[in-house]
Amino acid sequence: MKTFRFGPMILAVLIVLSIVLMPLSIERALIPSGTVKKAASSLDPHIFQGMLLQQKMLEDKSYLPIYGSSELLRLNRYHPTNYFKVHPEGFTPFLIGRGGMYSLVHTLNLATTGKALNKKKIVIILSPEWFTKQGLQKVHFDPNFSKEQTYYLMFHHTVNPKLREKIARRLLQFSFIRSDHNLATLLRNAAYPGSVSKPTLALATAQGYLTYKVLTLHDYLSAYRIKPGYKKSQRQKPDPALADKSWAQLKADAKKSTASATDTNRFHILTSLYNQHLRGKIASFKGYRHTESYNQSPEYGDLQLLLDLLKAKHVKALFVSVPFNGKWYDYAGVSKARRDVAYRNIAHEVKSNGFQLADFSRFDSKPYFIQDTMHISPMGWVYIDQAIEQFYKKN
Amino acid sequence: MTSFIPYASFRFFVLIGVLLLPVILIGLRGRRWQAYNNFLACLMLVLIFGSKPLQLVSLLVFLVWQLTLIRGYLAIRQKHNSAPIFYLMIALSVLPLFLVKLSMDVSALSFLGFLGISYVSFRSIEMLMNIRDGAIKTVTLWRVFRFIAFFPTISSGPIDRYKRFEKDEEHVPSGAEYRTLLYQGLNKIFIGFLYKYIIGYLVYKYWLGSPLLASNSVQSIWLYMYGYSMYLFFDFAGYSQFAIGVSYLLGIKSPENFNLPFLSRNMKDFWNRWHMSLSFWFRDFIYMRFVYTAVKKKWLKDRYLIGDIGITINFLVMGFWHGFLLQYIIYGIYHAIAFITCDRWERFNKKHHLIPKDNKWVNALAILVTFHVICFSFLIFSGRLNFLW
Q1: Among positive and negative, which fits the CA dihedral A227, A230, A231, A237?
Q2: Is the ipTM above a cut-off of 0.85?
Q3: Hey, of B10, B24, B205, which one would you mutate to test binding to chain A, going by the most A CBs within 10 A of its CB?
Q4: pLDDT digits 0-9 by tens, B177-188
């Protein structure tokens, strides 16, 4: 009689299952200390699309998360990460954002932070150019959409049911999300409770949960592979000389350096960028956005989801309203009156929900707050640094 | 619809695990439930190809085509044995495969084809050959269907033979026999996991994916060559283990595909160890057929020359079979040259007694040299050298 050794096979299955099904709390605890520090200014998109590192970061009182988009990658010496390194105020900025991370992306992300978000101080930078008639589009959402976070939202009831329903309904408007069969089934069930039959839901839950656990395992492993999400040329070193300067001095210095880099053209766009991409075909940009308006946009609804979530978690959030580059938008065919609609709507929405707003829309028609068509300049960062410091000290 | 590419996802393994449960339970009792097996064969085709309806349609048209050819040729063959009709049948059987391979160069044809068409074609051609030889005298359509579209091996082999398959189908294993099959099958599947999803994956990700190998320097291409050879072996041998393992669970002992190929002592040895079901198929149905016909018809006097021409045709066809791309053709020619050179050297050595055989140092050297000849062929195959031509 031959002996059959099934032991090794059973053991193999058990090992794999225990690794894949490892609870989130263990995965989070296994992340080596020091990783959060390394990740704070890395701008690695894996961090934004994961959850574990962000949860760990929020548990640590010394971090002030800043949520935004592509402007966060302009890591010049006045950028909060650099400024608060030489001029410590008791917190380290933790940067979360890259191009295309609109309010809905942040909502989904913040919905997966569990209890750690409660009463936390955070900063959110809003870009007015998000608030167009179309709002968030697949081209921006798809690369920033996190399946892992969406599954978390489906499997953990850390967000109140009404809001969860709204978020699920919004996500289902995107066809690329609907095409993920299991995820879409779970979302449909969350959006319209009772609309999915029990066996279908059970199957989607089982398959979805396995997918979700594989994703969290990836999330855990990506903590060992943090890479910068910015280009080398975008990052300057912290400048110790900034430490003892007054705000007035800093503003004057930053203004001077912004001016010298942008004063070669009437739009105050970085000379290098302007010469390379715009100068030759500037005529083709005349009026190229003339149909754009900001009075109605799905983005206002998405921002409301974000605000609702923050309210429910009693988060102390500072919103930053960044201006357009007025000169450029005039040329592009968007009048000041239309731009003011965006500023007004944003300010009204944030304030009426009881959140603080650092409103820099007054710089719309003045140069130097923006260094190209949309990104914050060194001078812009100084104003924002000041607002962050006041916000942090006061609260 | 979700796609179930064989052995490509956990989902696939869970799926076949569930669907095979009745087969296993019945098998352990020493029985076989043919109706369920037929149902499973159909269901798996739909699940494997269902997400791409075009592929499913191609497959169905293809199966009807091949079954008609086999059935039709069998009827003709029973009346008379005519060479032109036989060649016509083979040509018609190869035609779909030819068109699909041509689609690599002619994009207008790219709608054709389905996963595994070449492996399915091999089985059909083999049947036509055996019908000609009179080895197959009767067939039942269900069995031919189950043979040609045998789902565990449909995507990439191993290439089974009809007579062997028939023998396994006709013998229902006893409970004790099935227990052994079950154990061996599961064992193979687990070895497959180790090969494909652990070793193969790691080699692919950290060796082939290393940025150090990105440049076109001699060292990085050299290291890529070893890495690619390892990857090719572990990925394909792992896949083969899955396919054979699942076959076992169905009571079919699909033939082995690999036997420690990197320990081959010469090229002949290598082709007896690497992708065996393919190389044996080529040996039996291309090389042997050619040599047999050439000798019988006295095309040439020199038997060694006939053998060399046979080898050249054999590997050229194999190269074209991989795809109508230059790298595959060069790969075929390279193997023909390596094989013939090796053969000649062996004859020369036998005559002049230059290097003794059965000496462990000579063996080690032979393995090392053969290993490098093989790895270099895979480097050509990989396309990594395509920048040269």
Answers
A1: negative
A2: no
A3: B10
A4: 999 999 999 999
